[in-house]
Amino acid sequence: MLEYPQINPVIVALGPLQVRWYGLMYVLGFAATYGLVIYQAKRLQWRQMLDHVDNLNLALIIGVILGGRLGYVLLYNPGHYLINPWEIPAIWSGGMSFHGGCLGALLTGFWYCRRKAMDCWKVADLYVVTVPIGLFFGRLGNFINGELYGRITTVPWGMVFPEGGPLPRHPSQLYEAGLEGIGLFLLLWSLKSKAWQQVQTANWPHGTLLALFLGGYGCSRFVVEFFREPDAQLGLIALGFSMGQMLCILMVVGAIGLWLGRKRSVRQRGAA
Predict the structure, then answer these.
(1) Cβ atoms < 10 Å from Cβ of 190
(2) pTM of the entire predicted model
(3) Most distant CA pair in the chain: distance in Å?
(4) Residue-level pLDDT at 272
C-alpha cells in the first residue's frame, strides 16, 4: 500500500481569501490550452484565429465553468443544492462535471464562431488537441483534494484517502490523469499534423479531431469508472453503470454520429 500524500488543499490563506490547489490546476489547464492554441495558429499562419483567441478563450472559460458547475448540480447532486442553493457558486470547494463543462464549452464556442463568421469545426479541432492537458491538471486537483477516489482494492498501490474510510482504494484520479490526460493528449497531438494536411477531404474533414476527442475521452472515462467509487448520493444507475459511464456512452455515440455526419457533409459538398 502507498501512503496518500497529505497535501493541504489551501496553498495560502490571507484572511477570508484562499488560494487552493484545485483552482490553481484550473488556471494551469487554461493557460496550457491558451499557449498551445496560439502555437498551432501561428504554425498554420491562421490570422483570424490569432485575432480572436483572447475573446474566444474567455468565452470558453465561462462556458466550462458554468456548464461544469450546472452539470454537477443538476446531474450529480440536485437534492443537496435544492436545499442549499447558496452553495451552487462555491466551485472552489469542488463539484464540477466534465460532461457539463464540455457541453458548455461547445455551446459557447460554436456561438462565438457563428457570430464572428469563423469555421467552428476547424476551431474545435484546434482546441480539442490541447484539452487533455487541462484534464490532466484537473485530475491532479481532484487527487490533492482527496475527492473522486477509487473503489476498495488490494493492489499494492492502493491508498487510504482521508474521506474514504480505513481501507485502501484505487487512486482513480491518477488513472484518469494518465488516460484522459497524458494518453489522450499524445494521441491527438500526434494526429493533428495529419488532420491539417488532409483537412476537408472525405476521410479527414474538419471536426474529425473533435470526434476523436469525444470518443477517446468517453472510452477512457468509461473504463476508469470501474475503478472509481460511485457518487455516494447516486450509486450505480442502471446495468451496474455509474452516472459517469452512462454519460460516456452518450458521448461515444455522439462522437460516432459527428464523425459520420462530417464525412457525409464533405462528400455532399464534393459531389455538388
Answers:
(1) 10
(2) 0.90
(3) 66
(4) 46
pLDDT at position 79: 84
Contact 180, 221 (CB under 8 A): yes
Q: Residue 113 is placed in which grid cell? A: 464562431
Q: Which residues contact 95 (CB under 8 A, 6 or more apart)?
A: 69, 72, 73, 76, 77
Q: Which residues, at least 6 apart from 231, have a Cβ–Cβ distance to it below 8 Å? A: 76, 77, 242, 243
Strand partners, 228: 150
Per DSSP, 230 falls in state P
Does the residue 1 lie in any domain? no
- Total domains present in the chain: 1
- Assign 2 to helix, strand or coil: coil
Host domain of residue 247: 10-271
- Grid cell in block for residue 186: 499524445
- Report how far residue 134's alpha carbon sits from residue 38's, in angstroms, rounded to the nearest whole number: 16
The model's pLDDT over 214-265, given as tens digits with 9 standing for 90+, comes to 999 999 999 999 999 998 788 888 888 999 999 999 999 999 999 999 888 7
Residue 26: inside a domain: yes
Contacts of residue 27, defined as CB under 8 A and 6 or more positions apart, other chains included, come to none
